[in-house]
Amino acid sequence: MVETTENPRSRMFMRAIPFMLVHLMPLGAIWAGVRTRDVVLCFALYAVRMFFITGGFHRYFAHRSYKANRVVQFLMAFGAQTAAQRGVLWWAAHHRHHHRFSDMPEDSHSPLRGFLWSHVTWFFHSENRRTKSELIKDFYKYPELRFLNKFHLLPAIMLGAVVFFTMGASALFTGFFLSTVLLYHGTFFINSLAHVMGTRRFVTHDTSRNNFGLALITGGEGWHNNHHHYPSAASQGFYWWEIDTTYYTLRLMNMLGLISDLRQPTEEALSKNLVRDGHADIGMFQAHWSKAASALVNTRTQTGAFYEARKREVEARRKTMEEFVVTTKTRADEVARSSRDQIERARMAATTSQEANISM
Ligand SMILES: [Zn+2]
Ligand SMILES: [Zn+2]
Fold first, then answer.
1. What's the burial of 15, exposed, middle or buried (CB within 10 Å: 0-12/13-18/19+)?
2. 291 falls in which pLDDT band (50, 70, 90)?
């Protein structure tokens, strides 16, 4: 058996290298320049691809919040995969897993494991690389989706190539790559910030929040507490002031006959488990409790480490003192021995001299 010295951290780092390189690509604008149409393309590709991720990956494939025929279904998956956030089946299965285990130890990207973990690190960890096919059987049966899932970078490469060959290098760096990087973090904020910052309307078994700013940059996904309360709804903004551009686009597609059966939260669901009605917020209680428990463990570990350090210090001082005493005693013995020898030599000399005097 060949033993490998590579540790999981360095493997994760290696996997993240292409992702990091994508972050560097917009710097190509320094060489290629930036034109107004590149900036417009950047905004357009951000908005359109964000819609495919939220309306496709999330609301259709993960939650089945509306119906679509096979062609529209394929186009939604293809469009979302142009954002290079892995395959449709991988994405939707992981998201179903997130709803099943939100903020529990099994959750792939709970911020309770650290903000950076929930935002991006989890994405590269070996435990999250497999498509959880057992959670997405309803879509796994389609060969065209399995093909897309397997060659997940193909749509993104195709889009990048089209942009480059039709609009040039500056459009590629600013229009395509910059919008791809912004899309990464816009989407990832829903896993990280939307479970940390914002308000809670509904009591849920997790830490999800409603956040207006996040809703603006993610096409409505910032109403994450609404979503965790009623995940199968096609809308995530439940009231007119909760801006949800993905839902507006889905309604337009519904009117055009491209999709159908958009699911809505029931009146009963909208008035159930409201925080303002004084329901015990079990999700936040669990989160605070788990933070307190880990703080206690940390304190215990730190106290143990402090005690061990003091013990080592005292031991070192005792050893130094012991060495000092032993050395001093040895020196004293040597001095005493030498002094005794001197006295003995003096006494011998006096005796010899006395004997000499007597004999004379
Ligand atoms: Zn969530
Ligand atoms: Zn969801």
1. middle
2. low
